[in-house]
Structures are given as structure tokens and as C-alpha cells.
Amino acid sequence: MIPFDFWLTENLFCNFIHQVNFLFV
């Protein structure tokens, strides 16, 4: 089971990556 804090961090990081990719596309 994945700790919630870890999941939240991963989720925020993924969202950040998607935002950056969207800006550079």
C-alpha cells in the first residue's frame, strides 16, 4: 500500500510535468 503523502507528492509532480509539457508543446 502506497502512503498517502507519497501518492500526493507523485500526483503533484506528475501534474507539474504535464503543465510544463503543455507549455513547451
Q: What do you see in this structure?
A:
The structure is a single chain. The protein has 25 residues and is mostly helical. The chain contains one helix and no strands. The radius of gyration is 11 Å and the shape is rod-shaped. The model has no long low-confidence stretch (mean pLDDT 82). The longest helix has 21 residues, at 4-24.
Would you spell out the secondary-structure blueprint of this structure?
Blueprint: H1 4-24
Main attributes?
25 residues, mainly alpha, rod-shaped
Short description:
With 25 residues, the chain is mainly alpha-helical. 84% of the residues lie in helices and 0% in strands. The chain has 1 helix and no strands.
Order of helices and strands: H
For the secondary structure, the number of strands is 0
> How large is the radius of gyration?
11 Å
Number of continuous helical runs: 1
**Secondary-structure-derived class:** mainly alpha
Largest sheet properties: none
The amount of helix comes to over 70%
What's the pLDDT, averaged over the residues?
Answer: 82
How far apart the termini lie comes to 35 Å
Low-pLDDT parts are none
In percent, how much strand structure appears in the residues?
under 5%
The coarse silhouette is rod-shaped
